[in-house]
Amino acid sequence: MTSTLLIVQFVIAIILTITILLQKSSSMGLGAYSGSNESLFGAKGPGNFLTKATIALGLAFVVNTLVLGYMYNQQRQESAVDSVKTDTLIPATPVQQNTPVAPAAPVAPATPTVPASK
Questions:
Q1: b or e along 95-105 (b: 16 or more beta carbons within 10 Å of the residue's beta carbon)?
Q2: DSSP annotation string for the chain
Q3: Is the pTM of the predicted complex or chain greater than 0.85?
Q4: What is the pLDDT of residues 13-38, one digit of tens each?
Q5: What whole-number distance in Å separates Cα of residue 88 and Cα of residue 6?
Q6: How many domains does the chain fold into?
Q7: Which domain holds residue 6?
C-alpha cells in the first residue's frame, strides 16, 4: 500500500510542477511555448483552469503526504519482537505436582530354593 501511495506521490509532484510552470506570469514562463493552450481553453480559460488544477493537485499532494507519513510512522512503531514466533517446547506454566512421590524401595531378589527330594 505504501509503495502505491509513494508512486502516486511522485506522479502528483511531476504533474503539479508542470501545471505551475504552465501558468502565466510576468515573464510568461513555459506558457510562452504552449500557444495552443489559449485556443484549447479560450481567452480567459487557461488562467482559471490552471489555477483550479494547481489548487486541486496541491491539496491531493498534501493529503497524500500526510497519509504516507502516518503509514510510515505506524510501521516504525512496530517492534521486531512482535514478529518473533513464540512456539517453544518449554511450557508457559510450570507443571506442579500435588504430592511428592517418594521413590519405591528397591526390592531384593528372592533367594532360590532347592527342590525337596523324595
A1: eeeeeeeeeee
A2: -HHHHHHHHHHHHHHHHHHHHHS--TT-GGGGG-THHHHHH-SSHHHHHHHHHHHHHHHHHHHHHHHHHHHHHHHHHS-GGGGS----SS-SS----SSPPPPPPPPPPPPP-PPPP-
A3: no
A4: 999 999 988 887 655 555 555 554 44
A5: 39
A6: 1
A7: 2-78
